[in-house]
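[Meeting: bench + compute handoff]

Bench side (C.D.) handed over the final construct sequence. Compute side (W.E.) agreed to return the predicted structure before the next meeting so the bench team could plan truncations. Sequence as handed over:
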Amino acid sequence: MSVFPAVTLQLIAVVQSRRALTIAKADFDTQNSLLLDELPRLYDSRVDYFQPSLQAFVSAQVAA
């Protein structure tokens, strides 16, 4: 038995892992960029959503 096939399989596994890492890193960077862009806008728009909801809740409590 030769040691070389085992080493070759390990090298192939390393290359495949590096490719998978590169793809995962690119996907992470894309998603992170989108979140960094969208989350501040979502956070800023919270008042537009909660203010009418809270106002309706208070009005319903006062009327009851």
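W.E. noted at the follow-up: The helical segments are 4-44, 46-63. C.D. will use this when planning the next construct.
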